[in-house]
Amino acid sequence: MLLWENTKLKFLKLFKIKINPFNNFVATGEIKEELDFVNSRKHFMDSISKFIDENQNFILPIIGDIGVGKTHLFWALKKKLKEKYNIIYISLENIYRKFFYNLYSEFIEELGIDNIRKITQKLCNKWRGLEKKYGFFPIPNIEKAKSNAYSEWKDEFDSPSALNDIINVIISHQLDPYKRIDAEDYLLGELMNIRELSMLDVENDLRNRNNAFTMLKVLIENSKLGTIIFIDDFDKLISLMKEEEEIETFFDSSWLYGSEESSDNIVAKNILDKIAKLQHIKNLKKIITLNSKISLIEIKKIFRQENLDLLNHLKEPMFLSDFQEDDIYGFYQSTIQKFLESIDSKKTLANLKNSYYPMNENTLKKIYHRSKGNPRDIIKKLIREFNEIIYHDKFIND
Amino acid sequence: MKLASKNIIFDSVKNIRTHGKYNGSIIVMCKNEHIILTDSLNFVDNIIEIGKGLIIGFETMISNKREAFSLSSNFKFDLNNDALDYCVQIPEDLIEKFDNERFSNEFPYTINLLHSAGLLLNENQLRINHLDFFKGEILKNPIALIHNGICIADRVVIDESSNPIFYGTLIIGRNKKDKLSVSYESIVNVMDKLIKYIIIIGIETIK
Which end of chain B has a smaller Cβ tally under 10 Å, C or N? Predict the structure, then answer.
């Protein structure tokens, strides 16, 4: 066993196993971010959560420069609001094809199978799917449940065949033991073959957009928690709309196909239509992220042209600003602390005079000013500094 | 949980009689140790009428042999005949809990009996004890009459010592002051000696 008398040396040795505590400078919707928001953003977080609680069916734009931490905001919101909301991250890049199906898949992953079971149970109880024989023994009455469900929902949904499918699946899931497993697969978004579909007495699985939308609406509206969709990089929509004007091509597709619109333009309009359709889901709140005020003006313009309802629900933006100088110190310390916890050495720095070791206050200050407070730049520079320490034995004086 | 007076329809010991029409989950304890379960009951002029109820208990088919039975029927009791011990309506919140904790009938490792049968009977001369036979098994829909109360459970498991463990159980009975009470317990362990009988309700009966 090694007994380290020199804690600084011990700390540096930990880095020598080639782990850089600052290894992630781009947040994504897939990889969980553990770090909290820095102090200067706490107020921002409080106002955004207050806004979410007090408003319904809104589209809230969050504006911030590239690298300011808009995607990190998703993880921070998820952490802060996990008791009250299911928060789903979507990037337009990934889900413009099979929009509702992909959105449903993300939602299911967030909701979890236990909650799905609770929802289907609640619905079947509401539809009086279980009758009590002698006051104590529940007996399923599938036909009665179906008829109650259909008469309750027939005016709320556009597609009767999708509604029929969804009701059949929910009722089979709760009341028909022989179909329960297939129904659960359906609810989890599994692709079904004809045999499974006919077993459940449904026409389409959730690849059908009407079915996916109907199921999404049913689950969101009956979930115990509210639901927020966090649509990152909404600017993508602007670029899709503008692609035609900006890109110079040798081949003009309209020569062959006679269409005046580019395929990107059609995709963008489709996405807008689908987002507009989401407005019909109660309890669904939407947050979009944009890079600048100009993007917001463009988005408003597009909404005005394509769908006034979306424009009416678009709220005043909130601005996510860069780090303040004090934030870099707190951010640095909490990252190092998380790093040490992850390698089970959290007390290593406890007795050091310089609590920013192996950096120091001055170096951090310089990094802050060089990167003008942009969090992504700050992290990139910290990565570089630590790589110097790890690979080239750079030593910063206290 | 002490029962609210509105839930006690009739109590022969405390002489409580709350006339009216009742719907929900109602249990009637007869003085001959039969139990009646029903979802509707009418109590007017000291007459209790049950439209459709399930009576369960043990009966003597041939001498020296007792058989468990369950029978769906309508009933009419004149309270002056002193046939009933008590009659209570289970509060809705307890029934909701009871329902939520239920296993599905089709849970793969549970045994559903087709027809009601006696699992245990502790009578001086006529004893039935099939607990050993079902050791380690999960049986659905047991009803037990214990020293001072009734256990209606979702399932019963017979442990390695041949003691029944009731899961998801409503317990209806009298406390030390003879007041009627009802409670819900997730797990109830009872020594088999304290049990007067356990009947497993057959699924054909409650279809």
Answer: C
Residue A56 CB neighbour total at 10 angstroms: 11
Question: Is cis: bond before A358, omega within 30 of 0?
Answer: yes
Give the model confidence (pLDDT) of A26-41 as tens digits: 666 666 666 667 777 8
Kindly list the residues from chain A whose CB atom is less than 8 angstroms away from the CB atom of residue B25.
Answer: 132, 135-136
> Which residues in chain A touch residue B39, judged by CB atoms under 8 angstroms apart?
132-135
Q: Do A132 and B25 touch (CB under 8 A)?
A: yes
Residue B39 to residue A135, Cβ atoms within 8 A: yes
Q: Which residues of B touch A139 (CB under 8 A)?
A: 206-207
Domain that holds residue A373: 7-27+323-392
> What's the domain count of chain A?
3
Query: What are the chain A neighbours of B90 within 8 Å (beta carbons)?
Result: 135
- Side chain identity at A125, as an amino acid letter? N
CATH number for the region B5-89 comes to 2.30.30
* Contact (Cβ atoms closer than 8 angstroms) between residue A57 and residue A284: yes
- Residue A240 token pair: 């899709």
Interchain CB distance below 8 Å, B54 and A134: yes
| Digit-coded pLDDT (tens) for A292-330 | 999 999 999 988 988 888 899 999 999 988 888 888 888
* Surface-to-core class of residue A120, CB atoms within 10 Å of its CB (0-12 exposed, 13-18 middle, 19+ buried): buried
CATH of the domain at A288: 3.40.50
**Which of A126, A137, A176, A178 is the best substitution to test chain B (most B C-beta atoms within 10 A)?**
A137
pLDDT higher than threshold 70 for residue A200: yes
Q: Write A202-205 long-range contacts (CB < 8 A, 24+).
A: A202/A164, A202/A165, A202/A168, A202/A169, A203/A161, A203/A164, A203/A165, A204/A161, A204/A162, A204/A165
pTM above threshold 0.95: no
Nearest alpha carbon to residue A370 among A354, A381, A362, A359: A381
Q: Which residues of A touch B (CB under 8 A)?
A: 130, 132-139, 177, 180
Q: What is the pLDDT of residues B56-95, one digit of tens each?
A: 999 887 777 888 999 999 999 999 888 999 999 999 899 9
